[in-house]
Design brief:
The structure is a homodimer.
Chain A: H1 4-15, H2 25-37, H3 42-52, H4 59-83, E1 87-88, E2 91-92, H5 94-118, H6 123-151, H7 160-186, H8 190-217, H9 220-223, H10 229-232, H11 238-246, H12 249-259, H13 266-276, H14 279-300, H15 309-318
Antiparallel strand pairs in A: 1-2
InterPro entries (chains A, B): Isoprenoid_synthase_dom_sf, Polyprenyl_synt, Polyprenyl_synt_CS
Protein name (chains A, B): Geranylgeranyl diphosphate synthase type II
Organism (chains A, B): Chitinophaga dinghuensis
């Protein structure tokens, strides 16, 4: 049983050996660019952890982990084009450096490489592994489309449950599937795979609620982002959508007016409205609700409690829980 | 042994049952749009023919055929975005109808669905099939990138062999791989698979030379396209690249001047130059050279000659050869 940090080190050693060809250089430089920007490699490490929950680490978990990491980076390249995002992790995005054509194509070629990785795993569980992965991959695309569809709507027109569904697809199913893929490799039962998948999905949603909360109320120095960035961008978040449910007609009118304009004190005034309608308290409770579901899922997995410790530690770390 | 037409009918019956989900409708309407525009389904039928060359038709050839057809349509959606093409087969392109975001995403989700199809084939040859497919799929992306790279260069700067290589990747390797995938399912030997792959690749290049030739010299009524469309678009073709090799310095200067301008008689004058430097004769010979190589490849396949008849007929039809 290894910690997240130890597994990250092991995975990176494997993943960094993965080489794209030199030519056509525009295509593969674009692919290398997104991988070099880095990231925390959370998904592949979840794959390793899912494996280690049930059995010793198998080489196939590294192949499956590489597949999900390549897939995640493919989505970043294409999402940045769709969002017209100029910056990612402090670096210019792929389409800004290499143009949109190379960005679309490098994402495409990366997605094909995902399946080269999945084609290396043992034949006995290849079909199941590819099937679990494909389901998640399709859902991620569907989540991105729903997100784009929601962008065209007024926040009031977006139903809260539909929003939770969209966020789940866009951000959580790949975490969940990564864990399940590891469990398949480790020989976990279908029942245990299901609990582990649900754990990953609930942690992902709790994490997203926290992310929205910290963007609004977090200490910008600690959080490393501009406070209220989502508010300034009129981004649909858990907080904004719930505020429309919780606030009274006068507050609602004020919120709508603030969204339609850009006064200098926009962030402060929206935050005050959030506090007035207690959406901050609600968010903490909602995050806790998903967190508790996640820990219940973890409890339900029928392996020795001690084997679950690294997953518990990781969830505590991601969800910023003091132990 | 069935003809191309019979196999097309059989494949369409299978393929048309393939359903995308209803929601998110923007995503899947975009995917349905490209499939409904149609096309000749040549690649999947090649898959069926590759199978039938060696054995009775197997259900897996329909899965593999659906995979290559979905892949082909995925490339059409993304290529049309890159080429900023408004029209395909007389219909507005996907990004024109559904926007670029849904077009990128519907291509992505279609590519994932390719691998859902490939995940249905018998485990005994799944790895080999996926590996042959992935190699071709990666090469198609590389070919598209090279094509885009060449677009930025003067025609004189593009080396003829590099151009043939690019065209081979962009248009022929998927035809070749479709045949080989069928052969794998039919139980063809590695050697026979290789000959069949080479046959597909050479037919593909011969077809492309013919396509370029007909665009310039064909009867527009018979060919169904505007004569000289490639010339008006300054498109790099076999003819244009070879003309720069074959013509004398004065002709070269005239050709460059014509490319840099748009006189009313541009098509006629470029065609005259093509004739003067005998690039039309060269193209017919070059097409014949690739055709002969293809038929040699077909001869080399160690099965009864009568089994090869449908492939010979198809090549004759595609390459417009009177028998």
């Amino acid at each position: 049983m290894q910690s997240f940090k130890e597994l990250t080190g092991q995975f990176s050693k494997h993943f960094d050996q993965l080489q794209f060809p030199e030519q056509p250089n525009r295509l593969y430089d674009a692919a290398r660019h997104i991988l070099e920007i880095g990231g925390k490699r959370i998904r592949p490490v979840l794959c390793l952890m899912g494996n280690e929950l049930f059995d010793e680490l198998h080489q196939d978990a590294f192949h499956a982990g590489s597949a999900v990491e390549l897939f995640h980076n493919f989505t970043l390249i294409h999402d940045d084009i769709m969002d017209k995002a100029p910056i990612r992790r402090g670096n210019p995005t792929v389409h800004m450096v290499y143009g949109e054509t190379a960005a679309i194509l490098s994402g495409d070629v990366m997605l094909i490489n995902v399946y080269e990785r999945l084609n290396k795993v043992h034949a006995k569980y290849q079909k199941k592994l590819v099937s679990v992965f494909n389901k998640a991959a399709i859902e991620v695309c569907e989540g991105q489309q729903l997100d784009m569809d929601f962008e065209l709507l007024e926040p009031e027109a977006v139903d809260y449950d539909s929003y939770v569904n969209m966020i789940g697809l866009k951000t959580s199913v790949l975490l969940a599937a990564s864990l399940q893929m590891g469990a398949i490799i480790g020989g976990g039962s279908e029942g245990n795979q299901g609990h582990l998948y649900a754990f990953g999905k609930n942690v992902g949603i709790a994490f997203q609620i926290q992310d929205d909360f910290l963007d609004a109320f977090g200490d910008p120095e600690k959080f490393g982002k501009q406070q209220g960035g989502d508010i300034l961008a009129n981004k649909k978040t858990f907080l904004l959508l719930k505020a429309f449910e919780l606030c009274n007609p006068a507050q609602k009118a004020e919120l709508k007016a603030l969204l339609a304009s850009n006064p200098e004190d926009k962030v402060a005034r929206v935050l005050q409205l959030f506090r007035d309608c207690k959406v901050d308290e609600w968010a903490e409770k909602e995050k806790e609700r998903f967190t508790q579901m996640a820990f219940k899922n973890l409890d339900d997995i029928a392996v020795l409690t001690s084997r679950k410790q690294p997953l518990r530690d990781l969830a505590d770390f991601l969800l910023n829980r003091q132990q």
